[in-house]
């Protein structure tokens, strides 16, 4: 992974000192709440219902065992012993004292971490998929350009007070596991016939109140122009994006208002001034950054392991876990393991305790090369595990509550922290997730149902990405009480689509029954091994509506 | 006094004898006015709001004594892009003054985008704000005052 040099290190430490001073001035009353707000947000600090929340950046979801241990130590020393992994591959601490934040940030800086621009109206954490560098279907490694973008967007003085937040993601595999289409800028990286790295640039995707999938603005952009092109998009947005209404301030609204052709023309005109200038990337810089992502020293292993094969044959529980939680690796004899943070009633989706973090760090070192990834589905990935060790990893994961064999299944729920923590939420998310997980606790049945994504957001800000869940649940406020609206048919990836609302909303108590009726409709109409989302697309919403809203026998 | 900080040859100083009068609404008589774009008159300075297109100033650049850019709120970042365009694309070399909600914690960003004068908000101490001008020693990207990104310098 990327190794900080003296520049990177100086920046994070100077930033801690700067924020320490700002916190002191705020506490002393020299900075008003209004003046302090964007300063703390750009250092990852929110004020939630009960306490401050600190969102720590995990650039493109990659962290070392040592960094994971540091997160565990912060959870223990400054929080209530756990942290929450988010859909943007970051980590949130929910119970933070303001005066301790500079010390926490300093501890992070000591292991080359920070919380810079994890919030605020600026460019946020650059994301990619959790299997970057190891996925069997990867075309090339997205991480060097992700890191180059991370650096360029960090404290870029012109773009710290944009109309609204700005999210960039990059994907370079056949499958899109980085939700590119729902980012302000989404980048598909690929090679042409001559082997040159090119970018397909999507712009104006986003969820929230007005969910829109990104539109293509540029095809075949040579990688050297990445920074100048993104700069052109940001300058057009900074100058012309709406600032009168925060719900209409994202770039998607500007793109929609101008139309993609006119917007694209504005960007191209701006870009003509920038291209071939000093922002043009150099081979030397690419090589410098890419050298940090060279593949580790993989052993030459046989793709088949006798011990592994025997365990698979003898142990159905293990085989079931392998079928869902183990992903193909580009190197023979290795696999990537997904550790589920969705055990059901024992912990909310994405929550991981300090002892679990320490255990994961230890496994990353013992079985891999000391590296860990966070998936945007809020799960943890061990990217490099020899197949012969999969059984041992599974045993340990089960002992530590991270062994649920449910990746991609109905209970692998993506959920925001919701009304239990968040000041913006209309409704709680976690109890809804847990009630569904409790209702569907039969693993055999879940495996038979196959791939179903279920996403829950506690409000229209859509942190749980409910629009792109096959089943989406949105918390809404009706006369001061909590209700839930259901959407069906959402999907992420290269065939992204936005779910459609099935009808009037439900109370929290009704939700498990409603989901059960949705699932039973799917089972009735499913053809052979069809995926849920394909059934919805084939038969439409009507059969689901009929079943869900039918008079139920008393 | 205009609560003004100025950069001269890279050195920041408090300016006690700034002659300029910022005119927001009515147009008083006098010399050294900073006038809104709509009522611009030759010989005076001009200030632009964030909705104003900087390109409109092109014909006057040779004779303008001063350009000010307004921050109606410090959270409105449009003047950063306006400053960038004036300095790098339009070649403005004269005084570029930040006016409005100009606060210590944004001064280094303004400086990096090409501002060289800062009329700190009247209720704040300009002397205290001076501490915000330097900012951090490392800048990854490029800016008006350092057009080479760090990757061309490291």
TrEMBL record, chain A:
All residue ranges annotated as the Nitrite/Sulfite reductase ferredoxin-like domain in the record: 48-110, 344-396
UniProt entry tagged with the keyword Membrane: no
This protein's UniProt keywords: 4Fe-4S, Heme, Iron, Iron-sulfur, Metal-binding, Oxidoreductase
Domain Nitrite/sulphite reductase 4Fe-4S: 119-272, 412-548
GO molecular function: 4 iron, 4 sulfur cluster binding; heme binding; metal ion binding; oxidoreductase activity
One Pfam family per UniProt: NIR_SIR_ferr
Keyword Heme applies: yes
Family the entry assigns: Belongs to the nitrite and sulfite reductase 4Fe-4S domain family.
PANTHER family tied to this protein: FERREDOXIN--NITRITE REDUCTASE, CHLOROPLASTIC
Protein name: Nitrite/sulfite reductase
Annotated source species: Pseudomonas veronii
UniProtKB/TrEMBL annotation, chain B:
Entry superkingdom: Bacteria
Record protein name field: DUF934 domain-containing protein
Organism whose genome encodes this protein: Pseudomonas veronii
